[in-house]
Amino acid sequence: MNKPTPKHSNQRESIGRVQAPTAVVVLAAGSGTRMRSKLTKVLHPICGRSMIGQVITAAAFVHPKKVIAVIGNGREQVGPHILEQVPDALLAVQETQDGTGHAVRVAIDALREGVGTTSGTIVVMAGDTPLLQGETLAGLVAAHEGSGRAMTILTGEVADPFGYGRIIRDDVGEVVEIVEENDATPEQAAVHEINSGIFAFDGDFLADALSRISNDNAKGEYYLTDVVAIAREVGRSVGAHGIDDVMQIEGANDRAQLAGLAAELNRRTLDRWMKDGVTVVDPANTWVDVTVWLARDVVLKPGVQLHGRTTVGEDAVIGPDCTLTDVVVGERACVVRTHGSGAIVGADATVGPFAYLRPGTVLGVNGKIGTFVETKNADIADGAKVPHLSYVGDAEIGEGANIGAGTIFANYDGVDKHRTKIGKHAKTGSNNTFVAPIEVGDGAVTGGGTVVRRDVPPGALAVSAGPQRTIKDWVQRKRQGSLAADAANAALAASAVLEQSAPSHIEPPEVAEHADEGGQSDQ
Ligand code: UD1
Ligand code: CA
Q1: Which of 70, 117, 116, 101 has its CA nearest to residue 212?
Q2: What is the rounded CA–CA span in Å between residue 287 and residue 306?
Q3: pTM (predicted TM-score)
């Protein structure tokens, strides 16, 4: 698998030797009551796309001249959602859900009106088969094209055919009928070859046949499947194109089925990436959206979820335990226990553990966003580091700069957001607050605990913490009899004894030298 573009994107008129279909009709007017959801069934997400998004992606693979979506329930959401993906799709509104045959008739009317013809191949499919692959549709179209048949049905042999239409064949194996569950005799119900609900039709035949079907059946609906019998009546043949990989034609009707199909789609996505040279340490605990792109020798450790337009460069290591949405990770970068969205992580950079990258975070090559650090709209240049316990918002941090532990970029005055700029190779002390708008010049330094309210010129040291006052024996006086007072007294008594007995030539232990105002944390 490579970049998520269809393999045949340059072949608009044909797929290999196959002609582009006149239209693909996607049926999406049903309500999907079994989902028990406010959200229309076909809009439920699966591995980074909506169900219908998956189906439309498969449809795009055969480059139809027109995509027609039949919408009804939830049309205010479903319609715009489809147009986002296929701006020139025709939306055909089915006011009442009178069955799949009625739905396709509505689509044919829209096609006649919008394009002016029904000739050529018309593919019909449901909006709720999210594992369907474009290659499978292309195979169906190829099997149908030039066969002279009225229609070709995509069929599969399933262990449990319950709920599906059964493919009924005659003595010589010709398809004569599709019988729905509710209308099947026990003998017919025992057939395991089922109708996927995905067909390639001779368009003119379909348009004519749809005007002849009735709703005289158990459900009182117009069944698309009834056109099979009509084909036979008018002396046209009907073909079946079998698929072994039956999960591709499985519909998600409730949330349990959706979860099952999502797990399978994820497994398939991971399998493809592993074949392409990605290490997935624990596939059962790794989720990668179908829209994600990974380079060779990427390592995904357990507990990783990659969503949306996330891409990961060669030799980068992600995880354990990261959730990244629309994050671009550079080559050899290392991202550990991080939650991120809308961020860019440069090559050789390190992030986490326990980092929160919010939108607009850009970390340069070899940069570092460390532990318990939150960033937003932050441009952190090459080699710059924010190692510990900090919030960096609306900021620009220059190349090679180091931000001390526990630093807050105070970007919000309650009304407006303001920017902070830290210069190249600046070193800021621990526990600083940068009150934006503020600028710290190149090579400047700030002391520990500084609240930076005024710009700091290049090379300057800024300190705002006052000199330390030490009031001796305060605890013993104010907290008499407390454990703290007892401890202090004991310590003072011990050091007095030491002082008396110590030979005078022993120096006191050396105190580590800090930068002027101390408290910087590098790394
Ligand atoms: C249908 C087929 C069945 C097949 C099964 C495969 C018919 C009569 N039956 O049954 O043979 O095995 O699919 O999954 O075709 N829809 C509309 N408008 C309507 C009715 C349905 O747009 O008036 C849409 C639904 O939103 C759905 C699709 O058509 O996307 C299929 O409808 P559904 O009710 O799920 O059909 P099944 O009973 O599953
Ligand atoms: Ca169905």
Answers
A1: 101
A2: 6
A3: 0.89
